[in-house]
Amino acid sequence: MTAAAPARKPRALAALLLAASAFVGSAVALLPAGAEAAPYRDTLTQWSDRLDVVAAELDSAAAPLSPRIGGGTLLKKGSSGERVGRLAQRLIELGLLAPEQATDQFTEAVDAAVRAFQVAQRMKPDGLVGGGTRAALDRSPAEAALQMRQTAAAMRGFRDTAPDTVVLVNLPDQTTTFVRAGESALHMRAIVGRPSRETPLLHDQITHVIVNPTWTVPPTVMKEDKLPMLRSRGTPGIQHAVVYLDGAEVAPETVDWNGVTPGRVRIVQQPGDHNALGRFRFNLTNPYNIYLHGTNEPRLFDREVRTISSGCVRLQDARQMAEALLADTTVTPQRIDRMLDKREPQWVKLANPVPVEFVYWTATVEEDGSVRLHPDVYDRSDETAAVPAGSRA
Question: Residues 168, 174, 179, CA angle at the centre, nearest 5°?
Fold first, then answer.
């Protein structure tokens, strides 16, 4: 394929090379009462079959001829240089930019082509070539096909072993799905650990729902973030927090923190809308102190790539998750309202713990059959491709 080739084939290739993205609108989907829902295992069968079909189509697609754009600073309107030149050539090959518009300047035409690519990929059409958009543009057909086949195999393994009721956390897609009695009941965006503080692949269970949780700063955050802040500013930078030194509450501005080790300090943020966990926490049983919770920063769910936590999983709508988990108990939505009004932690133990599976699927399928590829956020797709569901991290 060359720059002068007919546009039809490059555009077909562009349609196949779908990339990591996040919907512009809300991604929380709750099925209405009485709505028909395909059994989740059937859905996984359809998805895995579809991934294999698209992978086969990619096998016959011509590989891009231009060099990859490659990592570097954000590219946007007004940028210039060699990487912009490679970006323009890639857009030409995909049929989104005319051959005569080759340039090393990020022009209006390049901006329009980038936005068109992002729309086709179901990405936020902002014209910015950051990590997600750049990875999508650089991905070859062979790499995309491999991702699809690996994910198809992993989906089939999960389908054959998963319980009928399970909370599913897909780390590359950064989403959480609640499957109840074999059918998908709730799906929402999630925030997972940053690459330096990965969320581990876990086979676990939810044992408690906590309304109005406190937040105790975990050891890694204490060592790397909060104790350095205490030393430099005399404050942990946390609203409504109580600071303990050797088990006794202290006024942080009165302490010389330079000789204090992390193990001597405990910081507890009080419940409320300001709390880092939001108004709901879902306790798991793993030894890594990983759990699910809400957040006091809902704007973060608008991001294309949401690998920004310290390891725990933040839920876009923790209230809906709590209601779904407690639907078969005496804890009604009205009772949850009353619990929220108390402004102190309220613990609800689940009579039957709900399984939680953390999976690593770098490809998913949309309702219209189109495929979305997601970034290998922890650089582990090769090692997880053959890991069966239920394996512990």
Answer: 20
